[in-house]
């Protein structure tokens, strides 16, 4: 039995300790917002926060996540919710497939840096591939979120 703490809820699951965290989140627990992209930790579609650090859930075994706090795109955090609003306001996604991973990476950035510059945003978003090329809109949405945080 493995215990996972996902989005503030405790889940006890009976799976192999080597099962990728992604499959536990999607197939066992039923949170399908985290996407399967490459299966090799290269594209960022499966990104989640593990104890506030972004990780590729397709290459992390559930045993490495046991007892740690996991935040997925379905979770609640002030930065994630503000980013989601900015994404909507600026119509960031095209196909939307990579956006959960993009939002999680941006959440991790804003959790550590209240006012990132363009270079810091670019560095934080490395490893998140968007086939539609919405990188400039993503950057604008992160800057908009910084402004929203100042207003709140």
Polypeptide structure, described:
The protein has 152 residues and is an alpha+beta fold. It has 2 domains: 70 residues, Beta-grasp domain (Ubiquitin-like (UB roll), Roll); 74 residues, [2Fe-2S]-binding domain (DNA polymerase, domain 1, Orthogonal Bundle). The protein is 41% helix and 14% strand. It has a 5-stranded mixed sheet with strand order 2-1-5-3-4, with helices on both faces. The longest helix has 17 residues. The model has no long low-confidence stretch (mean pLDDT 96).
Summarize the structure.
The protein is α+β, with helices and mostly antiparallel strands. It contains six helices and five strands; from the N terminus they run ββαββαβαααα.
